[in-house]
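Late entry, written up from scratch paper. The run itself happened at the end of the previous shift, but nothing got recorded in the book at the time, so transcribing now.
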Amino acid sequence: MPESPATSLSRTFDGSMRGLTPVPGGHMKTPRHSYHPRRAGIAAASMDDIVVDVEESSALLRPADGPALSPTQRKVKIGVYGVLNTVILVPLMISFAQIIFRDPEFQPYMNDLVKLVLVSAAVHQICFTCVSSLPFAMGQVQDAGLIFLSAMCSSIIKSLHETRGDDFSMEEVLATTLFTMAVSTAVLGAALIVTGKLRLASFVQYLPMPVVGGYLAFIGFYAMEAGLSMMTTQSIKEPGDWVKLADWNALVLSVPGVIAGTAIFWVNSRWDHMAVMPCCLAAMLTIFYGLLLVTGSSLDDARAAGWVAEPPPSPRTITQIYGFYDFSKINFSHLTSQIPTWIAMYFVVAFSSSLDVAAVETALGKPLDHNHELQTVGISNLLSGLGGGFTGSYLFSQTIFTLRSKLDSRYVGLIVFFLEIAIVLSPFSIIAYVPKVFFGALQMLVCLDLMLEWLWHARNKLLPREYGIVWLTFLSMVFVNLELGIVVGIIIAGFNFIYSYIATSSVHRVMKRSRVERDLRERVLLQNMRMSIVTLELEGYIFFGSSVKVMDEVRRHVLVTTTEKQEAQTLSGASPMLSRRHAPSPYVARSLEDTFNDDLATLDSVFDDQEIHGYSSTPKAGKSGPAALHAARTRYFILDFEKVSGVDATAVRSCFNATKELLAQHGIALIFASVPTDAERLLRVHDVIEKEDGSGTGSLVFDTLDKALEWCEDELLVSEGVLPLSESAPALAVNGGNEGQHWQLLDELLPRPDRSHRKDEKLSITNSDGTKPRDGEDASAVLTRELGEMYVTHSLKQEGETLYRAGGLVNGVYFIGYGKVDVFMPSKIHEGLGPGFRGRKRITRVCQGGLVGASEMILHKRHQFTAQARSPSSIFFLSKSHYARMQRAHPALAARFQQAMLQSMAIGVLESNLTDD
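Output as recorded:
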C-alpha cells in the first residue's frame, strides 16, 4: 500500500496524534491518559507493556511476561477488564450523546437519547468483537463523526425554525433528525465497505493532516461548549453566546466541572496506570454525594439547584424509545441538504479509522490489512445505521488498554456489549442520579486533551505553515461553520502544497556522458569540452507553478560570452530554428585563433546586466583563453524527462517554448530526452519538438538521455573537425583492403610499449610484412600479420550479429577495429529485476579502438550482458588460451594487449568519477 499519513500517525477516540516525530528542537509534553496511553519521554520503559509476541498459530497474543494464568485466573482477569472498559466507556458515551443532542430542544428527551447512543455503542462493539481480526478490538460511537451528526441535528432544527417559526412538534424533530442520522450512518457504512472491497483505503488517507488536526481541535472546542450548555442549561452554540456565562448562577454551575476536568487531565498527565481513570470517576461521585451528606441536602435539592438532571416523569422502555422513528412524522425535505455534511463525514471517519488501525498496528508490532479493518468499520456502521444508531469506529484508547492485558480473548468485548445492553434495559435513568459536573468534567477532559494537542503541542510535530493551517481550519469552523471550515482548510492546504512543491527543487544540473566507449583521442577531446553540454534533470509534475523555476534554472546554467551578451541585448524576436544537424551559430563558429578579451556569463546575468568573471576558472586572457572559452561555452542543452510524471499545457507554452526561443537566440541547441508519451504529444502540438517524421522547426527528441548525449558528442566532434569513428570506417573497409591492413589497423589501435631503449639506439629489423618498428620500439612488441594470425581471430560482423550472449562462458576479449557494438542487458533479465523495468537496457556502445568482455575475462565470470553489432564492424577476438600462450612466447606483445584492457577500464573509472552516474 502506498505511503500515507496513516502509516506514521495514529489517533485515539479524541484524535490525538501518535507516532509523528516532533520537529527538531521541539519538546513533547503531551499527557498520558489511561484512555490515551502516551509514549512521550518514557517510550523505552513503556514498550515492554505493549509489545506482544506474534505466533504463527491461531492465537494472536500470548502473555509476554510472568507465569501462565490458570483457567480461573484468566476468567477473572477477563471479567475485570470487561468491567473496567464498561466503567470508562459508559460515561464517555453519555457525554457523546450530550454533544450530539446539544440543542435545548432535546434536553427533555436526553435520557432516552442516551439509551439510543448506548444501543449503537453496543452494536458497534459486537460487530468489532465478531468481525475484526483483533480479538481485543474495542469499537464504540466515536468522536470523528459525532460532530457531523450534531451539525445535522442543528441544521434541521434551524431550518424548521426558519421555515415554520415555532410551529412544529418535537415528534417531527425527533423523527426527522434520528432518521437522517441513521440513514447517514448506514450509507457511510456501505461506502466504507465498498472502499475496503476495492482496496482503496489509501485513497481516503489523502485528507491533509493539518485539516484533520483543525477539525479534531474543533471537536474539543465543541465538547467544551456542549459541556457548558449541559451544566448551565444555557444554549452556547456561537461565540456570541459565551456572554451568557457572565451570569453568577451559570458560573457557579460550570466552574466546578471545568476545575474537575482540568484536575483529571493533570492527574492522567502524571500517572499512566489503568486504574487512574476509574478512580478519578469514582472520586468525583464520592465527593459530590459526600458534599450532599455534609450539607444535609437531598438529591431533590440538588436537582432543584441545577446540579442533577430531572428524572423523566415516566421512563420509556426501549420499544417506546424506538417509537421516535415515526415515518409519518419525518420531513424528508431536509435530507438532501445534509449531503455535503455526509461527504465530509465520510472522508473524516474513513481517515480517522485508518489512523486508528495504524496506531494499533504500531502497538501490536504486526502489519494489519487496512482494507479489511476498514470493511469492519463499514459493517459496524451499516448495522448501527440500520438499527437507528450513530457513527462509530475503533476506540484506540480502549483497544490498546485491552491489548496490554495480554488476553487473547474476545470475551472482553462480549462483556462490554452485554453490560451496555443491561444499562439500556434498566428501568432507571443514569443521568438522573449522576451530577452534571461528572459529565461536564469528562467533556472538559476531552476538550483540554484535543485542543492542547493540536493547538499547542502540534507546533513541535508539524511544519510552521502546517501548524498555521491547523489554526486557520479551527478558527474557520468556530466562526463560520463546520463544512466551510473543512473546505477552507483543504484549499489552504492545497496552496501550501503548491508552494512547497515549487520551492522544492525539481530541476537539477547533472554531469553526464554517453555510454559510448570511444578511442583515446575522442575521449580526451570530449573531456575537455564536457562543459559545453548542459544537462538538466527534471522531476515530478511540471505545471504552471514550477515553469518559472525551470526557466530560472535554464538561465542560470547556460554560459555565453560577454560579447554575446552585448549582442543578445540588441536582438529582437526569435532566431530561426536550428536544423537537425544544428549548424554551429556565429558565436560557436568563431575561430580558436581569435584574440578577444572576453569572459563567460550566464543568461540570468545577461538579463540582469551583470557579468560572472572567471566562471568555472576560465582564464580571461592569455594564449589559452579563447580556447578555454570556446570549450566551456554552452552549445547543447538537454532536458531529461525520465523522472517527469507529466506536463500541463501552460508549462509547455510558458516554459519550454520560451526556452527553445531563448536558446535559439544564442545558437544553442535544445534537446529533449525520455519524454513521456502525453508530454511528447503536447510538446509536438505546440511545435516545441520536431514532428514524428522528423520535419518541422522543433527541437530534437530522443528516447533516452544516453542517445541524446551520444548525438551531442558526435556533433561536438564534427564541429571540431573530427569525424566520429562511430560514424565512419577506415578506407580499408570501403575499398576492401588486403588482409595485412587489418593487422596494421589493430597494431595502430593498441597502446605503444614503453620506450626503455636509449634514444641513440637504432634498430634495423624489418618485419616479414615489410613494416619496420618505430624508433625505440621493441620489434617483438609489433603486431605483424604472422603474429596476428597466430593469436587473434579476425571477423567481419554485420548489423544485428551477436558477439556473445548474457550467461555464456567467457572465452576471451573482443577488440573493435571499426564499427559499433552495443552491450546491453536483454529484456528478460532487465524485466526480471522487478516492477518498473521494461525492455532491454543499453549498458554501453563500443566504437573503434574499444574492447568488450575484458572485465569478465579478468574476473573469470560469465558474460553479464549481450554484445551485438549495430553497424558493419571489424572484430578482433583474442581467446584466453591464445592470450596465455602469447604471454609465454611474446610477452612484449601480450603486454600491449594487457595495457589496452587496463587502460580501457581505467579511463572508464575516471570518466564515471567525473559524472553523476
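The radius of gyration is 40 Å.
(Scratch paper discarded after transcription.)
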